Amino acid sequence: MQNQDYHGNSNLMDAKSASRALLDFWLENGVSVPPIEPIPRNPAPKTADKPIVKQISTAKYAAPIDGQNLAIDLAKTAKTLDELRDILNDFDGCNLKKNAPQMVFSDGQIDAKIMVIGEAPGQEEAQIGKPFVGAAGKFLDEMLASIGLSREKNVYITNTVNWRPPANRTPTRDEIAICLPFLMRHIELKAPKMLILVGGTAANAVLNSNEGITKLRKKPHKLELAGLEPIDVFCLFHPAFLLRYPVQKSLTWKDLLTIEAQIKTMGLLE
Length: 270
Ligand code: URA
Prior knowledge:
By secondary structure, this protein is an alpha/beta fold. It contains 11 helices and 9 strands. The chain has helices at residues 15-28, 68-77, 81-90, 96-99, 123-128, 135-145, 173-190, 200-207, 213-216, 239-244, 249-266, and strands at residues 2-4, 10-12, 52-55, 107-108, 114-118, 155-159, 194-198, 221-225, 231-236. The chain has a 7-stranded mixed sheet with strand order 3-8-9-7-5-6-4, sandwiched between helices. Strands 1-2 form a two-stranded antiparallel ribbon. Strand 1 (2-4) and strand 2 (10-12) form a beta hairpin. Helix 2 (68-77) runs parallel beside helix 7 (173-190). The protein starts with a strand and ends with a helix. Bound molecules: uracil. Uracil (URA) binds next to helix 6. Residues 7, 118-122, 125, 131-132, 134, 136-137, 159, 199, 240 line the site of uracil.
């Protein structure tokens, strides 16, 4: 049976990928499976009725695992996006780097007010060195185009982790925790007015939440970073998930319309 993996690549569906697809389906629909835990760092404010996430500085994250302290220190030293890219390129603290052909940093417009964050590079992304260039990326481009957005004009794109996980598996909690200081610095240096988090991995990492994407996509969020205006944050189902479960697409079109309305209200494309 032909199937598409999390990055939209076609492959033959065997029993393992069938059970993985089923697990993904339940995870994407908000059913959490132990031992999934929030990514380690300082406790987040209780945000049940006030969806504001305060990230004061990457230095504030707890550092319970090897490599994260170094990542925090290194990320702080980047003063520009180019410096951050160079630092990440030289960073050996994430085990994903060992098997990945190259680091994937970003694509799109440096001066874009809207920043999109996905999960991790897939095979094509790792070969080409740009995020979202495979089947899921093409669908992401269609989703963005439906509300007047494109990486050629007004969007900047990156991922939660910058190296391809083997066999496109979901990055582990530790891998995400090690890459997180770089991601938060990436956001700080990019200073977008709006973040669009695609998929549960990006949403949980940036919002420091372990809620399912099905719930997170239902409400707008704010991310507060030191020295920046609070950033409007929206969560969407991952395009690879939508390619596998097209029945969920109608919800995403509604989510995109909500984002489009907010972009207009904020005058982000003017
Ligand atoms: N999926 C992602 O989350 N990111 C990519 O870059 C490609 C596929």
